[in-house]
Amino acid sequence: MFDVIVVGAGPCGLSAAIELKKVGLNPLIIEKGCLVNSIYHYPLSMTFFSSADNLEIGGIPFTTVNEKPTRHEALAYFRTVVKKHHLELHTYEKVVEIERIENGFRVITSKRDGRGIYEAENVVLATGYYDNPHMLNIPGEDLPHVKHYFHDAHPYARERVVVIGGRNSAIDVALDLHQVGAHVHMVYRKSAFHDSVKAWVRPLIEAAIEKERIHMHWETEVREITPEAVVVEEKGVRKEIKADAVFAMTGYRPNLTFVERLGGQIDQETGVPVLSDDMETTVPGLYLAGVIATGHDATKVFIENGRYHGRSIARHIRDKRKVARI
Q1: For residue range 225-257, what is the model confidence (pLDDT) as tens digits?
Q2: How many Å separate Cα 121 from the centre of its chain?
Q3: Closest CA to 273 of 251, 291, 252, 246
Q4: 98-144 confidence digits (pLDDT tens)
Q5: What is the maximum alpha-carbon separation in the chain?
Q6: What is the residue-wise DSSP string for 170-187?
Q7: Radius of gyration for the chain, computed over Cα atoms and rounded to the nearest angstrom
């Protein structure tokens, strides 16, 4: 039996495992994809919002030649973290069920060679939110040319592309597409960009819109997507925007399925799980680390603050063990 199983090998899961090892515990990390799977699937040209020092975990410096680190640099950094801390990590193994047992949890997985069964006194869910996009719930959203993830702009050179959304991810996608020669329209339901837009990006997108290199549709709702167009309602007027590809950059949400199945309490209005100050759910021994703890508003937790969740979790488990021995 493991002391702790950490589900998810993103930065917050890795940080939790490191903190658990520091207090003498024996964690196993199980990840359905590759190491830092979400970062790997970020756009190829992505630059982080955070500075390198705000992404550091495990006391290992993160150095970069840029003002802000790139996706490529982050992948190299987190590979180094796992190696230096000798973390026990199972990749390409998906957790499909978590059950309560008398002295902890049984974790059941699906992997290449069949099924895995593990037992642990405690479980930390650090599964992030990138796998669960906010759906528009409109006709045509399931068409093959509609995507909620963006990898590279090159395939869309000279294509007509509609980008739905107006925060950082949508703006980055629109600018990347414009750079390769795509004909870009942005559709955003609000009248202006959010204050959270990266300071060094805002002048670029505003200039592109002003010079009509990117066509902006403010206060516009998407009503339908067809094989050839995006049907919108712009300030009360219904119109069609021709599109060869559509990127719905509408954000993501945490998956709380395991918390719900195990009986954990969740605020129905905000979607926020009920947690102690030590990140423990109402299910004893079940903890959350990272953005999974944020509910519907996934903008409250980033790597910058989620990396500290593991410290609270590790101390709490250590202290529980001390009490149990008395």
Answers
A1: 999 999 999 998 999 999 999 999 999 989 999
A2: 27
A3: 291
A4: 999 999 999 999 999 899 999 999 999 999 988 889 999 999 999 99
A5: 71
A6: HHHHHHHHHHTT-EEEEE
A7: 22
**What residue type is 272 in one-letter code?**
V
Q: What's the rounded Cα separation, in Å, for the pair 206 and 186?
A: 12
| CA-to-CA dists, residue 2 to 22, 59, 107, 117, 267, angstroms | 15, 24, 11, 12, 30
**Does the pTM exceed 0.85?**
yes
At residue 2, φ and ψ (nearest 5 deg) are -80, 150
b/e 271-298 (16+ beta carbons within 10 angstroms → b):
ebbebeebbbbebebbbbbbbbbbbeeb
23 alpha carbon, distance to own chain's centre: 28
pLDDT at 326: 61
Q: What is the mean pLDDT of residues 195-224?
A: 95
- Residue partners of 162: CB distance under 8 A and separation at least 6: 184, 185, 186, 187, 230, 241, 243, 245, 246, 247
